[in-house]
User: Fold this.
Amino acid sequence: MGEDIMYRKYVLSLFLCNMIVLASFCCLKIVERSRYAATPAFRMQLQEGLREEEASSMIGSIDRADSGQRVIDYQVLERQAEYLSEKDFQILCRIVEAEAGGEDLNGRILVANVILNRVRDSAFPNTVEGVVFQKSNGSFQFSPIRDGRYQRVKVSDETIEAVERALLGEDYSEGALYFVSRKGAAPEKMQWFDNHLTRLFQYGGHEFFS
Assistant:
């Protein structure tokens, strides 16, 4: 009887040792994967995967908001994902919220597209901060900067998603460098848009120009 008890204790001890070794191995693998997930290489692969998924799934078009508006085709431009400093990312989110917080997701992406188009254009500053706070004839380019709405907005999750998608290459802007809400703009301002720029299309409450 004593030998039988000793044998059972030995088997149980062996089983517990094996379980401890297995658990330690699993924990090690989890730690290794977590470390890899934090690396730039992993984030790059994730972003590339998102771009491929968006490119394959975004087929069709957005319904017209009203009879006078153009249908915007779903497109993802073939270009590298753009990377911003944390400061520029927060500035971009805040100006998109201030300018397009009442628009749908694609309307917000369009505003982010215009800001990024300006960053890439040699006629404008080459940073988001420079573009957003640029002055023309002593006045800020974007009305939320002038009237303080930029400081008061609370950035929504939808706006953050719109900015992230724009940075990954989702672009409906056709190269637009300007946008305006006709109903909210002064007549002399709209006259300048109509006389000096090329109107591309309207989406939501904004008209887009190049």
Observations:
- The longest helix spans residues 2-37.
- The mean pLDDT is 77.
- The CA atoms of residues 36 and 42 lie 7 Å apart.
- The first strand starts at residue 135 and ends at 136.
